[in-house]
Amino acid sequence: IEMPVFEALNVETLPLRLGQNTMLLQRLGEDWGSWKVREVGDGNLNLVFIVEGSAGSAIVKQALPYVRLVGESWPLPLKRSFFEYHALTRQAARDPGRVPEVFHFDGEQAIIVMEFLAPHIILRRGLIEGNQYPNAARDLGQFLARTLFRGSDFSMKAAARKADVALFADNVELCDITESLVFSDPYFNAPLNRHTAPQLDGLVAALRADRDLKVEAQRLKHLFATKAEALLHGDLHTGSVMVTPGETRVIDPEFAFYGPIAFDVGMLLANFWMNYLAQQGHERDDNRRDMRGYLLEAVVTIWETFRSEFSHLWRTERSGILYQRALFEDQDDSLGAEQALDEVLHDIWQDMLGFAGIEMHRRILGLAHNADFELIEDPDLRARCETKALKFGRHLACNRRHIHSLAEVNGLVERLE
Ligand code: ADP
Ligand code: MG
Ligand code: MG
Ligand code: MG
């Protein structure tokens, strides 16, 4: 038997290799010889092609056996495509319409064929340009609550959840990336680190010498590695969100695994705060004051929507092994269920702030920087923005147990500006 051998696609071979697939022929049109193919991947890891035929279009995403950003010297298994596919199907069931529809999956070739989102653009890009998206925050807050609540022991049947924990536990290498790049590398002289130098050298040295910060970062890593609470997206930053003025979609869940709910929430909010702190580097003649207000409001809306939707699901869909209704509502003690909800949300709140702080550090000190700061050409100006984010991140990580409201946090961000 001939073993199927992995082969990376390119714009020439894609129609030859996928032109036999009946699903695709139906979507794109039978004349596969005239499909138009473009490679558009701007991510750190994978190949992404837009394929357009006479009848329609699709995205073809293929994993490579290495990290695209670094090259073949950093191998990374193809199975991340399998986890992305399975995460997409679960997210589609838990928050319908929020992720691209999957048309086809080929595990051996690590290919996912999915809905081409157009004219959507990456949210991060839009925010850098100063565009506001009135529905995005509400949509993202709902996505967080629905995928995380419905992907947890609050809701799932025990056997289904345990089988799923086992399935995603094999996403070892992508978890390892987060464990190293997010939680540890920024706090020592790791080989893949880089930062705006020499401007940030002093602050970088101070952060690496900051015992309290390093202990907090490791406590958060401890949570990340051990708290298998819900199926996470795992990479939910503003570069994993695509938008039009009215629509919001979430892509790229290849880092999915069972981890702490607060991780997805904190990463997302951190990326809004970083965009806020980068605005100074992008405003030209346009005044970005409205934009700054919009960004801080968006943070509040994401969190408040998350809270209220999570609470709604707690009251209406709490059917898992935790906090059973038999203990509370069924004994006419709905306040007991509310008390438990407050405890759960309080833990998420404190941990979310910590994860947000650490996310800001790794984006400025680690390997994977974000465009919000990277696109600020003047290194002095960039460093001024990054300095605020680093100090803010340190504050969140170390003081998270004493911070009581987003109004307080947003006030802090405004005073940094
Ligand atoms: P990576 O895992 O390498 O980060 P992504 O899934 O984030 O790859 O995709 C990289 C880029 O490809 C995105 O930033 C976006 O521009 C484009 N892209 C990915 N999926 C879609 C899609 N379903 N529709 C439209 N564009 C997409
Ligand atoms: Mg991506
Ligand atoms: Mg990715
Ligand atoms: Mg309450």
UniProtKB/TrEMBL annotation:
UniProt xrefs under InterPro entries = Aminoglycoside_PTrfase, Kinase-like_dom_sf, Methylthioribose_kinase
Report if keyword Nucleotide-binding is assigned: yes
- Please give the Gene3D superfamilies that the UniProt record associates with this protein: 3.90.1200.10, Phosphorylase Kinase, domain 1
In the Enzyme Commission scheme, what number(s) does this protein have?
2.7.1.100
GO biological process terms, alphabetically, are: methionine biosynthetic process
Q: Which domain of life is it from?
A: Bacteria
User: Which key words tag this protein in UniProt?
Assistant: ATP-binding, Kinase, Nucleotide-binding, Transferase
What GO molecular function terms would the record report? ATP binding; S-methyl-5-thioribose kinase activity
Domain named Aminoglycoside phosphotransferase is located at 37-293
Q: Which family does it belong to?
A: Belongs to the methylthioribose kinase family.
Description of how the protein assembles with itself and partners? Homodimer.
This protein is called S-methyl-5-thioribose kinase
